[in-house]
Amino acid sequence: MGRALAFMGSMSSVGKTFLAALACRWFAKKGLRVFPFKAQNMSLNALATEEGEMAWAQAYQALVAGRKPSVRMNPLLLKPLAEHQAEIIFLGNPEGVLPAGRFREFRRAYRQRVFAVLEEVLAENDLVIVEGAGGLAELNLLEGDLANYELLRTFRLPFVLIGDIDRGGVFAQLLGTLELLPEIRDLCVGLVVNKFRGAVELFEEGGRILSARSGKPLLGLLPYQEVHFLEEDSASLVRFSGFVTERPLKVAVLAYPYLSNFLDLDPLRHEEDVELIFTQDPRALEEAEAVILPGSRNVARSMAWLRERGLAETLKKLAGKKVLFGLCGGFQLLGRTLRDPEGLEFGGEVEGLGLLPHETLFRRPKRRGPLQDRPDFPFWKGPLSGFEIRYGRSFWAGEEILSLAQGEVLGTYLHGVFFDDAFRTAFLNFLRERRGLAPQPPQAYQEKVAGALDRVLEHPAFSAFFEALGDLDKF
């Protein structure tokens, strides 16, 4: 039976995903067979493998550990559909909709199914890195909390408790969490104060206080990192003003409601001459060289929002002046009509932007998995691979289509295309040429991710933390 180590947070956004990814990288480089695991994730950022859908975060952790992403790494995925509703994805497959008021029943129904998956992966791997969800001490949610409390208690998992000093209140975060959960306090192997800014000696007394009050060692005082890959919180990405850096190539992502799969665009954020912003500001769209319409989990509501804000008219005025690129739901929005007779997403019929001539029909079954096409784009005319997650089917000139371009308005159903280094470079060089900038050679995104994580692990504070965790016999 393999061992496990859990990364639990005192609240959301303390750095669990990033530290779990670093742990996957660290222990994999030590020669261990490492398996990332998050029992339940709520996210609109999904990757579709041959097995089905899973959260991007666990796929990312798998890749940096040298493992092929598997739906067992994220057995339960909830994808918000509208207020108080979410699509249930279990082991990659859709299993209906979770309506408002049924959350407790839902968790009871899936508890044993999820725990059975963890039992399997523990038996098959040297080390399972478990990531928690949100805050550990959500007292009103403890019963049936299969991603945190129940998981730790049932499997007696050792865990690291992480606090975020950058947002303040780190003593209350860490000590309060342990105080509220005395029944699993013995499972905590130590504390982490994350996102620290300033001289280490400024927190020496703070570290002593935490250790004395908790009875747990302070395993890490980890500095704030500017390295950000695959951040899942779209709200934190949205900028309501314009571009702010001197990077010459400006790309705007239209951040409409029900924005989904925005992690498709993560590789663009790490190109040295590209400033990518998620925005709702029409002035930013006008400043950009390209405007990307990303996926949407409810295209009808996204379309209504575009009209209410006057952004539909802005996009129509920009057609022919800017490159407009729609991905999946964004591709659907660029078309003439969207029809959903079965109510799979919104129900009824909605007029699109009409910037491309196709029409979209929503129908079962849901398509998910790898996808190939040969788009005829101004900068790319050849085979292209990605993945699909959709109910919508688009038709033009009597045929079903996966991609379409007219002039510099283009779209595709292929998610993940910007992770293709050659395609991303061709797209950006097309934009560079429009701005009179010199073309650039491809940058290997996957190598950049691994290299950035390795540089973080070389930092004395991070290396000391993982060395402290390295003695697996104590877990």
Automatic annotation (TrEMBL):
Keywords: Cobalamin biosynthesis, Glutamine amidotransferase. One of its GO terms (biological process) is cobalamin biosynthetic process. It comes from the Bacteria. Residues 6-226 form the CobQ/CobB/MinD/ParA nucleotide binding domain. PROSITE patterns: GATASE_COBBQ (PS51274). The active site is at 328 (nucleophile), 415. SUPFAM superfamilies: Class I glutamine amidotransferase-like, P-loop containing nucleoside triphosphate hydrolases. GO terms for molecular function: ABC-type vitamin B12 transporter activity; catalytic activity. Residues 250-422 form the CobB/CobQ-like glutamine amidotransferase domain. InterPro entries: Class_I_gatase-like, CobQ/CobB/MinD/ParA_Nub-bd_dom, CobQ_GATase1, CobQ_synth, GATase_3, P-loop_NTPase. CDD domains: GATase1_CobQ. The keyword Oxidoreductase does not apply. It holds the Pfam family GATase_3. Pathway: Cofactor biosynthesis; adenosylcobalamin biosynthesis. Catalyzes amidations at positions B, D, E, and G on adenosylcobyrinic A,C-diamide. NH(2) groups are provided by glutamine, and one molecule of ATP is hydrogenolyzed for each amidation. NCBIfam families: cobQ, PRK00784.1. Belongs to the CobB/CobQ family. CobQ subfamily. This is Cobyric acid synthase. The lineage of its organism: Bacteria, Pseudomonadati, Thermodesulfobacteriota, Thermodesulfobacteria, Thermodesulfobacteriales.
